Amino acid sequence: MLPRHHDPIVAVATAPGRGAVGIVRASGKDLGVVIRALCGKRLMPRHATYLPFLDSDGATSIDQGIAIHFPAPHSYTGEEVLELQAHGGPVVLQLLLARCLEAGRGIGLRVAEPGEFTERAYLNDKLDLAQAEAVIDLIDASTEAAARSATRSLSGDFSREIHTLRDQLIHLRMLVEATLDFPEEEIDFLEKADARGQLTRITAQLDAVLDRARQGALLREGIKVVIAGQPNVGKSSLLNALAGAELAIVTPIAGTTRDKVSQTIQIQGVPVHVIDTAGIRGEHAATDEVERIGIARTWAEIEGADALLFLHDLTRMGEADYDAGEADIVARLPAALSSGDRLVHVLNKSDAAQVARAHGIALSAKTGAGLDELRRKLLELAGWHASPEGLFIARTRHVDALRRTREHLALADAQATSPDPALDILAEELRLAQAALGEITGEFSADDLLGEIFSRFCIGK
Ligand SMILES: Nc1nc2c(c(=O)[nH]1)N(C=O)[C@@H](CNc1ccc(C(=O)N[C@@H](CCC(=O)O)C(=O)O)cc1)CN2
Ligand SMILES: Nc1nc2c(ncn2[C@@H]2O[C@H](COP(=O)(O)OP(=O)(O)OP(=O)(O)O)[C@@H](O)[C@H]2O)c(=O)[nH]1
Ligand SMILES: [Mg+2]
């Protein structure tokens, strides 16, 4: 452990601002001095005691509240923990925090960094890395489905699946390593133990976990969808229709939207970050400076989109000007978009025109007709095929680790199925597969990764 992991720490654990109740929480060794100073007496372990929180003079109280002492190791962090549950005013909480720091000067008490309580829980084996990540994912969850799957990951569902895979891998590795030690029997031994069968079963299970992790990562991260097209085709109207609120200004004037307007909506619990952009028209047509900058931003948004909704106006198709404008946009679309399946043609204003063109989704931002089909299309494009029940939250980091595990298993399988298998390579690939898997729960993790993960937490968590 790094030296800083030995300092006792303290922070306000509740959200900034005013609230009914606010908590100051300390964790570390030798909190007795802080308890005596603020509570004036010893506290019964893990019992809520109502008492005055004492100021430096030992007589006046800062507040009256509930104190709880969790002796190590039975606490959130696994260290000794003191909780002061006070009235939830920012000033009273700052006074309590300052008083704790003063009383704890002798033991080196300092203010906690973001995520440091949870980092300690991880370092003291109260949570593994995937569970610690689920803590912040639960706090950050923006949809019910995301919150429920974060709770599932926090309670260890995801980690258990990873451990099951790991245990099977270890079993297989032992078999292969043992065979390496008795080269004369090698092929025979592997065959008897059905090493290949084991490898196939592990791979199939890994694929299932990988699929669920991808869905979980989608629930956490969502997708970025950009609405773009010529001016006046109804982009802002579509954003408003999807969001169910008048977010962006809609007028019959071409060039109404100057800057992007973003809103996160949810479709079946999947967060969808929708971005409405300034209408694109050719260099010659965009006369003013503001509009030109707006259009440049539109193109920048298109570059980073998971999906592009290219919006067309059914009432204007066939007009020479309009068709020329469409051709301009098509010519400038990034190749990756126009060739892939991330581009969706949306034909708007179906309420006011005949729908002639077949390819694309016809809808009316005005009446809402066709919106459900668009929502379905977006989920399909995102790769969403699960129902949120039974999912666990996951991150890109987890999906990457599972993918690398998968690659090593494939390389191991290539040896296992070869007529002349190189057992040392087989053994090495299995070792690498286990190491990649171990990154998820933090069995094999570098310090900089931990710093990166915990620094994203809020203070006091
Ligand atoms: N007041 C308060 N509420 C809170 C927290 C907290 O720290 N304080 N939590 C913080 O995020 C969450 C709860 N997490 C906790 C996790 C473990 C333990 C704990 O005491 N664990 C002991 C005993 C377990 C047991 O009795 O089964 C242990 O692990 O040994 C407490 C809270 C949510 N609510
Ligand atoms: N009939 C009909 N009119 C629509 C529909 N959607 C939008 N409109 C109208 O089309 C006009 C332009 O709508 P906006 O949503 O502002 O279009 P935009 O693409 O955001 O325009 P810019 O921001 O200028 O690029 C408005 O008068 C809308 O009322 C639709 O589905 N049907
Ligand atoms: Mg607009």
TrEMBL record:
It is found in: Cytoplasm. Its cofactor is K(+). K(+) binds at residues 232, 251, 253, 256. It comes from the Bacteria. The keyword Magnesium applies. SUPFAM superfamilies: P-loop containing nucleoside triphosphate hydrolases (SSF52540), TrmE connector domain (SSF116878). One of its GO terms (biological process) is tRNA wobble uridine modification. GTP binds at residues 232-237, 251-257, 276-279. The keyword Nucleotide-binding applies. Its main location: cytoplasm. Keywords: Cytoplasm, GTP-binding, Hydrolase, Magnesium, Metal-binding, Nucleotide-binding, Potassium, tRNA processing. Residues 222-383 form the TrmE-type G domain. (6S)-5-formyl-5,6,7,8-tetrahydrofolate binds at residues 25, 83, 126, 461. GO terms for molecular function: GTP binding; GTPase activity; metal ion binding. Mg(2+) binds at residues 236, 257. Its EC number is 3.6.-.-. Binds 1 potassium ion per subunit. Exhibits a very high intrinsic GTPase hydrolysis rate. Involved in the addition of a carboxymethylaminomethyl (cmnm) group at the wobble position (U34) of certain tRNAs, forming tRNA-cmnm(5)s(2)U34. Homodimer. Heterotetramer of two MnmE and two MnmG subunits. Belongs to the TRAFAC class TrmE-Era-EngA-EngB-Septin-like GTPase superfamily. TrmE GTPase family. This is tRNA modification GTPase MnmE. It comes from Piscinibacter terrae.
